[in-house]
Amino acid sequence: MHVLKDLIQLDRKADAPVYLQITNAIIHHIRRGTLRRGLKLPGSREMAEHLGIHRKTMLAAYDELMAQGWIEMIPRKGTFVVRDLPDIKPKKIKPGEEIGQYPGKTFFHIDEKKVIPFPVGQFRDPNLLAINDGFPDTRLAPTELFLREFRTVARSRGFKKYYQYGTPKGPEYLRETLAPFLSDTRGLPITASNVMITKGAQMGIYLTTQLLIKPGDAVIVGEPSYFAATLTFRQAGATILRVPVDDQGIDVDAIETLCKKKKVKLIYVIPHHHHPTTVTLTPERRIRLLDLAARYRFAIIEDDYDYDFHYASNPILPMASLDQHGNVIYIGTLSKTLAPSVRVGFIIAPENFIDAVAHLRRSMDWQGDSMMEAAIAALYHNGVMGRHIKKVVKLYHERRDHFAALLKDQLHDRITFKVPDGGMSIWGTFHDVDLKKMSAHAAKKGLLIGDGSLYNTHTKNYNALRLGFASLQLKEQDRAVEILRESM
Amino acid sequence: MHVLKDLIQLDRKADAPVYLQITNAIIHHIRRGTLRRGLKLPGSREMAEHLGIHRKTMLAAYDELMAQGWIEMIPRKGTFVVRDLPDIKPKKIKPGEEIGQYPGKTFFHIDEKKVIPFPVGQFRDPNLLAINDGFPDTRLAPTELFLREFRTVARSRGFKKYYQYGTPKGPEYLRETLAPFLSDTRGLPITASNVMITKGAQMGIYLTTQLLIKPGDAVIVGEPSYFAATLTFRQAGATILRVPVDDQGIDVDAIETLCKKKKVKLIYVIPHHHHPTTVTLTPERRIRLLDLAARYRFAIIEDDYDYDFHYASNPILPMASLDQHGNVIYIGTLSKTLAPSVRVGFIIAPENFIDAVAHLRRSMDWQGDSMMEAAIAALYHNGVMGRHIKKVVKLYHERRDHFAALLKDQLHDRITFKVPDGGMSIWGTFHDVDLKKMSAHAAKKGLLIGDGSLYNTHTKNYNALRLGFASLQLKEQDRAVEILRESM
User: Pick from A322, A349, A380: which residue ends a domain?
Assistant: First the structure.
């Protein structure tokens, strides 16, 4: 009996048609070397009889193999495995070994230094109570209105262009809607040519870093500062310099001292609500920092991730609105306004920067999701976003006050904090509390909360947490802080 | 009269409330230096009268300025611009100069070498006739079914988790749907742990390059090869080595010769339908290439951008399905199946590679659009995608045949081509035709078509075009080829 007959197992319940099962089995054994090159194969009639199938099915399999170049038919001689396949030593298959197992590891070298482990956020079950880092309450997202716009975009003739490839800067429609919106709300005298749409603020930080930073370049960040930005700079090979952050924001004197000593390429600031400490950079420091930037010609990334959420007064205009020379790269996001999973953000910068960064972005992911982006543009255009922001700011304001009172009443001297002027979290420093233990205890009682390690730097352990209040209703806050108290 | 009174212009038709207009005007002039530090400001009553507004409005503006830290109230003395603002020299405003103009250029240095201009695709008006590079017909996209799934995802309680932050690998649901789908259709014996969801194939190429390539590393590509991949390798500092592509695909002998001479880090292949020439790599070359990879320990990027679209026989199983050692990074996309603007693709690789690349992706854009990704998963899960692919493959097959016949009948000896086994375009080499002129002439007659420069390399002018047939209905093909003939 021909070897081939033994090698084919048909599964009549499988989705794949029988002729394809035969085809794949034969390919498998040719590549394994079980069927050697030049081997003569049994005739289709013989194989069909043996397998109990119609001869046409077997012929279809042979046709398929021939079309794919695995076997050849030599007139008056028969059907053969093609001769010009390279030598393959048959691999012995041990009993029980699964055939065609996928390799568990790469066989080539991966430079481990390139892999800086980012804290890959654990999955947050929306049904569990959680004090997060300061995320919005997605239950408030204007889902139905968004769906309506999305449907309109997807169906409309005029929007069909968003199905095809677009530009890496984002759809004109969104850029032209966003420019006046940002101009009106943030005093940015920009046009669409200064706008690039990104997938969230993180892409803005990444692109700017890739464009500006060569290995060894000096980047200044706060002590403490937003961890993901710091990792992004390190990944690009930057030398990280840290300057203190006090209750007026990042220390500009310290920045000046550093600039006098060495060439600084980039400074990363979060003036509106510093991450993690939530402090707002004072107007005088803002102006001095811009002045230093012009003098020492460094770039400033102004990360304004939650501009819209300010309660003490109106939001303070971004530094980018004061920039007269072109030092500031202004980065924002809509993720905090709609939902974190909606990956739409923007870079605002002088036109030459936007053009350069668009080329970089092309190689990264070509372009954004134009349909999604067009739907979001519509939400801004028709005023839904404006109204939504107004509504949630009022609600978050109330939630901040309630939460601050709770922390004070319930946790007393175990925590110190300053009520922040904006944002979605309170920066609380704990006293005589082991945060790792507290986090573990709380989890057992049904409350997810971090252990603060995210905010520590190489030199400092803050024993502090960003306590997100925005995503919790008042009653949920009561329960969460109660568990927190019991977990200390 | 106080200087301040002259500086404020109210626009009663503006959206911004009056008190905010005053606030912003005063900030503007403080930062310009027009209002010097320590300057005493007029009382609110006086200002209100001068401006013709209610005194409460003026008080609101002063409160706002105080809250933002621009002015201070000294009891029994009055209201002042804060003294501890740094010295600012007032900038003379020339007549006619627009106040607050946004800088036209950056004031810091951008390394021009980092900016490799990608051909930023011109906008394709969907209402104009176009012979594109080989894109799908978006008119056939199952828009309504997609919208239904998207709505379900957005509304469903169970899916609320997709509103919050997720993982950089993509939603579990999509990875677990895609793994068996790819296993069934492409013989990839993988699990979800081998899958990472990306924003299209380009992100897969970019991430792999960033992870593996250090400046100076050697990367082999075909002559010709897909331009965007080559640019991505160059951007990472790779040394590009080119080997010929003939009618059996990339020349594996030439690859072996190179490997003997120098350390090769990565080889980029498109075995199923080579870009741009559409040729399919033969089985024997595939096996030899895998053998070389194991011997010389290089990585292979297998770009399989249009696997599903094969007409000659069933699609040929990817090289990744034969990979026994872990040399192949398999990259695919769903953009060609649904619509180019739907940015969902995937990387299939050994688990250690997926983990490493997920960290890199974190810094790039944090994660994908989980809601969109979940909706697409549902389309695979409920069989819509399978049926859609079957339907369009039949249609594209017909369109390929019609288009090939047209080219032969209408353009005769001005073009040579081989009918491709799959894909969405025909690679046509033109004779005695100036493609630049042809492209310009065609545009005047209402047909958009490239001039072929995209496919040329440093050393070769192919005078050829990828002629996309898939997005044109038969009558549109007739008209397009007619215009083409008239434009030569």
Answer: A380
